[in-house]
Design the sequence.
């Protein structure tokens, strides 16, 4: 219980709690780094949410410090995603690009893509949407676009460029005939005007 009058500073309260009760250093000292590495190698991917119990962490700020104790060549960490093996991520990346480009659609609802990812890749089945979004954000072939919090789309960059190129070619094809006809029409008008001027001049000379 904390007794106070008027106002209680939440910052001061948290500072007191951390000073008296924070046992992170003790938890870190008891962390079995080799056991954690073995778990990551076996799973190939551990989501950030599952990193908390694995690394005995309670707060997001504790994760980076704990990860420095277990990271080694062949094990990487991405904020929002979790711990993973680079070989696993590269294989998933290639598989995803092949699948997403085979859809032959430049824009796809993000929610549909996330659900399909959970079905196609078992390692992602238990992941929440934010974790899969963090995963998609690592790959340059796709981009997430949000018109609102309820309307999110996944844009496939290669198909977006192809559509833009096709639109540019169509626009050029539509404008080229007009541009080709314009000089001819201009020349015809100029010739017509000259002939009319000659006729007017000749008629005037006859009357004179």
Sequence:
């Amino acid at each position: 219980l904390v007794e106070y009058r008027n106002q209680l500073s939440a910052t001061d309260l948290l500072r007191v709690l951390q000073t008296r009760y924070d046992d992170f250093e003790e938890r870190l000292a008891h962390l079995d780094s080799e056991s954690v590495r073995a778990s990551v190698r076996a799973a190939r991917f551990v989501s950030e949410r599952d990193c908390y119990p694995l690394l005995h962490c309670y707060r997001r700020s504790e994760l980076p410090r704990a990860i420095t104790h277990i990271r080694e060549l062949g094990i990487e960490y991405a904020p929002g995603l979790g711990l993973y093996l680079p070989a696993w991520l590269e294989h998933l990346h290639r598989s995803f690009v092949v699948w997403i480009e085979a859809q032959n659609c430049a824009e796809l609802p993000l929610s549909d893509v996330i659900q399909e990812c959970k079905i196609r890749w078992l390692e992602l089945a238990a992941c929440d949407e934010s974790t899969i979004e963090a995963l998609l954000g690592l790959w340059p072939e796709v981009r997430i676009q949000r018109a609102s919090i309820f309307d999110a789309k996944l844009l496939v960059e290669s198909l977006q460029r192809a559509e833009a190129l096709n639109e540019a070619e169509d626009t050029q094809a539509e404008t080229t005939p007009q541009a080709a006809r314009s000089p001819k029409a201009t020349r015809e008008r100029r010739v017509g005007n000259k002939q009319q001027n000659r006729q007017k001049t000749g008629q005037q000379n006859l009357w004179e």
Q: What stands out?
A: The radius of gyration is 34 Å. The first strand starts at residue 45 and ends at 47.
